[in-house]
Amino acid sequence: MSYCPVAGIDVSKRFSDMCILSPDNKIFAQEKIYHDETSINRANALLQKAERLFFSKPVIVMESTSHYHLILFQFFSEHGYDVIVVNPLQSNSMKDFSIRKRKTDRVNAFKLAMMYQTKTLRPSQIPQTATRALRQLCRHRAELLNDVSSYKNRLTALLDQTFPGYDKVFSDVGGVTSCAVLVRFPTPTILLVEEESELVEVIAAASKAGYSFAKKKAGLLISAAQKAQTLGIHSCADETLIVCTIQMLRTLSESVLQIETAIDNLLAQIKEMRNNVSLLQSIPGVGSHSAALLLGEIGDISLFKKPKQLAAYFGL
């Protein structure tokens, strides 16, 4: 039993149920919290009343329910409460409290509070705000990478029509060197009317692989461009579409780098996060960014006592 009051909050989309327990596990108050300023302030008044009566600020325990818990988490954190956010699948002990079963609102709020009182919960060593930030950054990075892949596919489709054989010269059509070539020579016709020396110079500068490499690639491109004059499907829109697609690719790639820098900076600030990432990287095939993504979803590996608990978290 703890020596402070505890409030369990069962979160749902439209409203949440709060149950405040006294230090001796008796129900002190129950309140339905609608997610508006008036209702949240009323809940805060009850918490303050418990603090005055029991001479200790209540600890708040709430479920991680999509994004719906974030408003309450931010409000109570900013008002000085110790807020613990748990996932319903975080531990087998939650199963004992029936948290994994169908919600029963006030009953679940009581059980959440009891989980803290009976020491079932272990506090995370990583701040909730940091976990949320890492999760947001990693999810946004994943979305951007999907966009990069989508625009590379668009570029490939355009080149298959206008410049057949181009992908045999540059297998990664969205790569740095390929994009540098296409921005300067977006169609076979433009490439063929320019001096070969200009093409070699662009390839050498972008690839940093030397003159011999650039000369060889230029020769292959010229040969492919000559064949494309006959085999390709040409349109007055080709140049614009290819250049615009590459501009989007470059913007997206730059955004990915910015997100990755932000992730690295966040990890550098919090030792526990770095340790968790290092632990995840010990798994074969898990790199630094995959480890960060996993950590953002898990929150804190130390909260899982057994491998089965982690598997349950991911629904395995």
Automatic annotation (TrEMBL):
Identify the domain of life. Bacteria
Q: Which residues form a coiled coil?
A: 256-283
Q: Where is the Transposase IS110-like N-terminal domain?
A: 7-164
A GO biological process of this protein is:
DNA transposition
Keywords of this protein's UniProt record, alphabetized? Coiled coil
- Is this entry keyworded Transcription? no
Q: Name one GO molecular function term.
A: transposase activity
Q: Which Pfam families match?
A: DEDD_Tnp_IS110 (PF01548), Transposase_20 (PF02371)
Q: Which residues form the Transposase IS116/IS110/IS902 C-terminal domain?
A: 278-316
Note the InterPro entries from the entry: Transp_IS110-like_N, Transpos_IS110, Transposase_20
Please indicate if the UniProt record lists Amino-acid biosynthesis as a keyword.
Answer: no
**NCBIfam families reported for this sequence:** transpos_IS110
Q: Which PANTHER family match?
A: TRANSPOSASE (PTHR33055:SF13), TRANSPOSASE FOR INSERTION SEQUENCE ELEMENT IS1111A (PTHR33055)
* Name assigned to this protein: Transposase
Q: Which organism is it from?
A: Faecalibacterium prausnitzii
